Amino acid sequence: MGIEREGGWLAAFYFVYFCALGAFMPYWGPWLHAQGQTPLAIGILTAAVQFSKVLAPNLWGWLSHFWGSRRIVMLGTLLTAAGFLALEFSDGHFLVILLITLAFSFFWAATLPLVDAATMDWAQRRSAAYGRIRLWGSLGFIALSLGMGVFISNWGMRAFLPGILVFLVLAWWVSRHLPYGIPTHPSHQLRPRMSPVLQDAGLWFFLLAGLLEQASHGVYYAFYSIYAEAHGLSSSSVGMLWSFAVLCEVAFFWWGDRFIRRFGVPLVFTASFFLTALRWGVIAWWPGLLWIVLVQSLHAASYAAFHLAAVHWVSERFPGALRARGMALYASMVYGLGGGLGALAAGWSWAQWGGQLTFAGAGLVALLASVFLIKGLRGSPTLEKKTS
User: Fold this and answer.
1) pLDDT of the residue at 173
2) How far apart, in whole angstroms, are the C-alpha atoms of residue 296 and residue 303?
3) pLDDT of res. 184
4) Which terminus of the chain has fewer Cβ atoms in its 10 Å neighbourhood, N or C?
């Protein structure tokens, strides 16, 4: 398989995977509402999706040593699609929807960390840029977050599940062609051990920092649209702001590897945390149209720069056969636990103190995260040194 073709399959997977996610995230709550679910039930079902990312990626990352990443990614995408098909027959019953949600989330959480690990392996072998492959995911997210709105406007909420199902089936088909690297055969060689890198305190400071940084996004993902509309923006303007933020994310993914090479992971990492804090502070205290538009460009820092630096950092400390498990640990702690706790904390804080103080609090959380990040980056040895 040539380098262009391999990169094309990886880009295609990110695109269709994030098409499904872009259709899911903005319209999961409205679909549940259309099924007659109460606000409390919607909160529980949304949290179930997030918290499934805590344990599932670690389990699938461990199983990848035995089964191989290809088999797990194919299985995960196919069974996730089956879960969305099953939702068609849930008839609005909360417990049925909850069980199906836990099931499809468990399998959905298996796929992306393993593909991220495969992409980093491929990029290092081919001297290619991870960010220029990953940006296709952001483009897919934009395409379907906007496109699903068009579908729903024309056909109603009955377009929600089939629209996601199509892209999950495509993700399964594309996953058959991904370059997963050289498979390992446990019966013929020793599996590397995780214990040396898990003894590195810097790893846990990094994970705690990442958890807090992502937790600070909880108020943004849950309440930004409501907050912006409360300050005079129309629904269409809010949608354009979301799209603008992801376009800035795409731009950083395109050039981000150059930033990493020129300035290094620690500097890019640290800058992303401080700019995240600045982003939430501006939204809290200067919510006017001009500032709120300009600050959306900082999504390039709070998400794209953070994620790109994190993938490089994790890849350095979990080389070779351990990379899939390292990516799984990162995904579960940062996006699973951090995202879930952030969403719950944002809901509680919004009800107690309102939007301004909740966004201000998110800025303080991002600043606190930078303290742990600096401790994690300070002289953390690589895994190769520990196992040499």
Assistant:
1) 95
2) 11
3) 45
4) C
* Cα 32–chain centre separation: 22
CA distance 309 to 270: 10
Helix or strand or coil: residue 179? coil
Q: For residue 224, with 0-12 CB atoms within 10 Å meaning exposed, 13-18 middle and 19 or more buried, which class applies?
A: buried
Helix axes of 160-175 and 130-155: crossing angle, nearest 10 degrees: 150
Highest CATH level, class, for 194-388 = mainly alpha
pTM above the 0.85 mark?
no
How is residue 379 annotated by DSSP? T
3-state secondary structure of 198: helix
Domain-wise residue ranges, the chain: 1-180, 194-388
pLDDT at 304: 92
Q: Where are the beta strands (DSSP E) in 155-261?
A: none
Helix axis angle for 39-67 and 94-126, nearest 10°, is 40
pLDDT tens by residue, 2-20: 567 888 899 999 999 999 9
The CATH superfamily of 1-180 is MFS general substrate transporter like domains (1.20.1250.20)
End-to-end CA distance of the chain: give it in Å, rounded. Answer: 33
Residue 363 burial (CB < 10 Å; 0-12/13-18/19+)?
A: buried
Contacts of 154 (CB under 8 A, 6+ apart): none
d(CA 253, CA 247) in angstroms, rounded, equals 10
**Does the fold of domain 194-388 match that of domain 1-180?**
yes
22-45: per-residue pLDDT in tens?
A: 888 778 877 888 898 887 787 788
Which stretch of DSSP H or E encloses residue 295?
helix 289-296
CA 119 to mean position of chain CA atoms? 15
Q: What is the DSSP letter of 322?
A: G
Tell me what pLDDT residue 84 has.
Answer: 95
Please state, in angstroms and as integers, the Cα–Cα distance from residue 25 to each residue in 74, 162, 186, 249, following that order.
22, 15, 38, 17
Which tokens go with 93?
Answer: 């019953």
Question: Which pLDDT does position 80 carry in this prediction?
Answer: 95
Q: What is the rounded CA–CA span in Å between residue 135 and residue 194?
A: 30
Positions in the chain short of pLDDT 50: 183-189, 382-388
